[in-house]
Specification:
Blueprint: H1 2-28, E1 33-35, E2 43-50, E3 53-62, E4 67-71, E5 76-78, E6 81-91, E7 100-109, E8 114-122, E9 125-134, H2 139-144, E10 148-155, E11 165-167, E12 171-180, E13 186-194, E14 197-206, E15 211-219, E16 226-234, E17 247-256, H3 269-278, H4 302-310
Helix pairs in contact: 3-4
The structure holds calcium ion (CA) (3 copies).
Length: 316
């Protein structure tokens, strides 16, 4: 009897315990926001540099839509250690059962060269860290340098066969691209040359990193027949040390008798055939031949044929 009494007592106690637990969990089960910490597997960190500024992209993948980030935290820095302490919440009530990635970008600002660690925290606890290296060889210098450059020169006769030719008394366009590779806004002159003769000069103002394309029109009227090296020169700006890139040499272009399309020194039937072959074409067309555009107006038409006819049989 005594044994049985103990058993009943235990059963009653067990029932009471279960029911009290049940009622307790029932009463506690309210729909509310509770602090939440993701696991490191849920967090993806990616370091990148842009415009001399360091950034960390973070993506947290939540298992449902029932999460909220009230604060991503401020980036804090102590030497080579950086961190941000976030505040993340989980909704205990009903929510959409969809995997929900949430992304953010931390701006770390300007960092000196070195090896760094960034740690993402939630509610003061480390969740995930990423190590990264900032290598600024030359980059620091760039920001402190004055450096302009000519990065490309091309003419409207580029691609002419067997060499680019421009008819005397007519024009070719010389297209010059200049760039500010330094850290200061610069205003400077750019001069295009045929050999040592200036074709034209233009002033340009460029912000750091900016580039601009300038077009010079080379009128060959005052130029003798023969080969010319086309180049462009950006004037050295105050404080500039890298001056080699201020000059860009495009190549050789030949000033010829109007109509000497192939530049062999005589205007003959072979030149006429080349004009005929490009007749009706303009820049960009399949049969476009820049040399056949004798008057340099961007199309090969009757005006070019007339020009050629006017000099037919001439030799240099
Ligand atoms: Ca330069
Ligand atoms: Ca010829
Ligand atoms: Ca033409």
């Amino acid at each position: 009897m005594r044994k049985k009494g103990v058993l009943v007592f235990l059963i009653v106690m067990a029932i009471l315990l279960v029911s009290s637990n049940f009622s307790e969990s029932q009463s506690d089960y309210v729909e509310t926001w509770v602090p939440y910490r993701p696991s490191s597997e849920q967090v993806d960190l990616e370091f990148w540099m842009g415009n001399q500024t360091a950034y960390i992209n973070i993506t947290i993948t939540f298992p449902t839509a029932g999460y909220d980030i009230s604060s991503w935290g401020e980036v804090t820095k102590d030497g080579y250690i950086l961190w941000a302490n976030s505040e993340i919440w989980h909704w205990t009530g009903m929510c959409a059962q969809v995997i929900t990635p949430v992304s953010h970008t931390y701006e770390l600002g300007y960092l000196e060269s070195g090896n760094y660690t960034f740690t993402f925290k939630a509610w003061g606890i480390d969740i995930k860290s990423i190590d990264f290296t900032v290598a600024r060889a030359g980059v620091i210098d760039l920001a402190e340098q004055h450096d302009v450059a000519v990065i490309d020169v091309t003419t409207s006769k580029a691609g002419g066969v067997p060499m680019p030719t421009v008819s005397k008394w007519h024009i070719a366009n010389v297209t010059v691209t200049v760039e500010n590779q330094g850290g200061f806004a610069e205003t400077f002159n750019v001069t295009a040359f045929a050999n040592s003769s200036a074709i034209g000069e233009q002033q340009v103002t460029l912000n750091p990193g900016e580039n601009k394309t300038l077009t010079f029109i080379w009128d060959t009227t005052g130029f003798s027949y023969g080969n010319y090296t086309v180049k462009a020169v950006a004037d050295t700006v105050p404080g500039e040390t890298d001056t080699i890139d201020n000059t860009y040499i495009d190549g050789v272009i030949k000033v010829v008798i109007p109509g000497d399309v192939d530049g062999n020194g005589r205007v003959n039937i072979l030149d006429a055939i080349k004009v005929a072959g490009a007749f009706g074409s303009k820049q960009g067309d399949g049969n476009w031949n820049p040399n056949a555009d004798i008057n340099g107006d961007g199309v090969v038409n009757i005006l070019d044929a007339i020009n050629l006819a006017g000099h037919f049989g001439e030799t240099v």
